[in-house]
Fold this protein.
Amino acid sequence: MEEPFQIPLGGKNNPKGFFNLLHDFFIVKKMGGILGLVFFGAAAVFFSLVVSKLGLVPGVLILLMLIGLPVVLALIFYPKFGVITFIVAAYLIMYVGRMNITDFPLGTLMDGMELLLFLGIFVQQKTESNWALFKSPISVIILVWICYNLIQVINPTAESRLAWVYTVRSVAVIMMMFFVFLYNIRTLDFIKLILKIWIGLSVFAALYGYKQQYIGFTAFEEAYLYSDPEIAGLLFIGGQWRKFSIFTDPVAFSYNMVVSALLCIGLLTGPFSRRTKILLMISAFLCLTSMLFSGTRGAYVLPPAAMALYAILKFNKKVMVGAIIGALGFAALIFVPTTNPTIYRFQTAFKPSDDASFNVRKLNQKRIQPFIQSHPLGGGLGATGMWGKRFAPNSFLANFPPDSGYVRVAVETGWVGLLIFCTLMFIILKVGINSYYSIKDPTLKSICLAMILVIFAYHIGNYPQEAIVQFPSNTLFYLVAALIVITKRLDSQNAILPEFNKKV
């Protein structure tokens, strides 16, 4: 297999030349002293005067302009800041949007951040001139998938070009973040920081799910629940509301909790301190238990499926004994009689023949097969779901519920698109598993294992639900794919570093 691209040893992803000079002079030397205090004091007085004379709205607009330009420059020239900001924003954007604080389309804001971060790669290339990141197997297949989605704009079967415009943002544009992550994450310390932020956000989401379960919803969440009768029909089951935490819906909540728990479980194999491992176990427990509040049966099968892969990858006597004990305990949980509605719904996930919704989905998928077979390019991006109903409400596909990420891909991009997408999943897993067995550094090895478990969970979970089309799952998916390549890259650099130092 072709080795992943190498960042030059000793390279930094900091701004160069003029921007470095400005940073050192104004930020480090000046703003940290008396000048900084005077500047920020004057800015506060100026803002107060604007608000008192013109009102709050003009004052806020001026403040946004003053803040906006530095943020834009930081996203382009300070990639670490940009990467962290984007990950946090992707995790919280749906929660902020539900608050109805602003009418500004937050999805457009995320699109802008994606483009600015991608632009930052080209800016850095002026000094580094290293395009090898596009040559890894995962990079190649992602580029193929992006191009295929872009040419869907000329799909002769598509009912609406506007549906393509709105859909390609969440399909092809977000994929560019893979290259942003791949290019800018260059050290183990930065990886650890990202994972700490991810786990911290996940614990917050898990605790928020506990809050919804045992304390209740906030006023704006109740307004959302009662805003549409269809929402109540989907979320009010068995005499109680399904919980969604800070995410769009219970499905997104459950899937994000599962992958976060698997992240923690994978990291437990690393050479971390006892305190760190205890925190990882607590985090995994909180995520897995809060996941049950979602009532998403498709998510319940993901932990045992991922742990089966874990047992295979870590095959030894100790792991196998643990796997057998875990399997017995899991079987007992499935079949033990219970009156608890949460546990009962969990049990029904493993009895699909008794599930009416599962049978309806099977019938719909069988009904759509002739269309998929006769349309190799599909019905066009956005042909189903929300955008299909909005831009082509009278079309056949607009009213078809895919209820599956793979079915949606097949319907909208045809069996050709499904083949490419499945190849993408296969290559990511293949590269990940090969990297796991070849990585020598124990910390990087544990991180790679965690990423494999997460990708596998997304792969399995994408069949019963659409697992990777919403924030933050779409962002985390490409972050994980990038980290699979990065861990191998860093391990390879560690192997050659002693020889490099000898020569120096």
About this structure: The beta strands are 236-237, 240-241. Residues 17-30+78-503 form one domain. Residues 405-438 form the longest helix (34 residues). The chain has one domain: 17-30+78-503.
